């Protein structure tokens, strides 16, 4: 299909299934998840070698922070899905608000994560404390970086969702941005129990 102006639905004919986003977006997402999978496996290997140390260190995490952050990201993903559907249905007033709400959820996650880091460092807990804390800071730090990139993507989605007409390429970028945000959510859903609950 040519890159011509289309309506806000960005449709490639309604009802015809297609892979959302650009091919390059999926290559990036799958590559990123492969890297994180390697980190997860490495973490579990080292945990199995020193279970007591990892359990004692993990017990010092504030699980409430993790629970709230999980709820925030799940809510943000629902809002992104709703925003994307609003674009397809040409709901000009709804889509930007949904992406803005998702951004606010990401902001809330950021505030809690920085608060958690600050609290731990204030108690003398740094990446140099032991292996668990090294992996904690590396894994959550990498995820936090992806979250910040995702928040920039959400700003892009907000801007694009206000346009009356989108090109095929623009809509593909919007879909790809939504997929990236879902990846950020999915990574946290794996990280949260891995760091906070696994014993």
How would you characterize this protein structure?
- With 199 residues, the protein is mainly α.
- The chain is built from 6 helices and 2 strands.
- It has a two-stranded antiparallel sheet.
- α3 packs antiparallel against α4.
- It is a multi-pass membrane protein.
- Residues 24-199 form the Heme-copper oxidase subunit III family profile domain.
- The chain crosses the membrane at residues 26-46, 66-87, 94-112, 132-159, 171-198.
- It catalyses: 4 Fe(II)-[cytochrome c] + O2 + 8 H(+)(in) = 4 Fe(III)-[cytochrome c] + 2 H2O + 4 H(+)(out).
Distance between the termini: 52 Å
- The number of helical segments is 6
Overall form: elongated
In order across it, which strands form the biggest sheet? 1-2
Major beta sheet summary:
2 strands, antiparallel
Subcellular location: Cell membrane; Membrane
Membrane topology: Multi-pass membrane protein
Keywords: Membrane, Transmembrane, Transmembrane helix
Domain Heme-copper oxidase subunit III family profile: 24-199
């Amino acid at each position: 299909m040519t890159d011509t102006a289309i309506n806000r639905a960005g449709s490639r004919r309604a009802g015809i299934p297609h892979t959302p986003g650009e091919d390059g977006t999926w290559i990036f997402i799958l590559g990123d998840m492969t890297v994180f999978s390697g980190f997860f496996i490495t973490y579990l290997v080292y945990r199995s070698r020193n279970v007591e140390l990892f359990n004692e260190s993990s017990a010092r995490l504030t699980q409430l922070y993790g629970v709230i952050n999980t709820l925030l990201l799940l809510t943000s993903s629902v809002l992104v899905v709703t925003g994307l559907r609003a674009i397809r249905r040409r709901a000009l007033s709804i889509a930007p608000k949904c992406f803005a709400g998702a951004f606010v959820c990401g902001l809330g996650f950021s505030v809690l994560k920085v608060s958690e880091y600050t609290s731990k460092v204030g108690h003398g807990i740094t990446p140099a404390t032991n292996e668990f804390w090294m992996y904690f800071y590396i894994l959550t730090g990498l995820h936090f970086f992806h979250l910040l990139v995702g928040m920039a993507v959400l700003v892009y989605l907000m801007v694009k969702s206000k346009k009356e007409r989108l090109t095929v390429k623009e809509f593909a970028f919007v879909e790809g941005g939504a997929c990236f945000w879902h990846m950020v959510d999915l990574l946290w859903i794996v990280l949260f129990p891995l760091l906070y609950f696994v014993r």
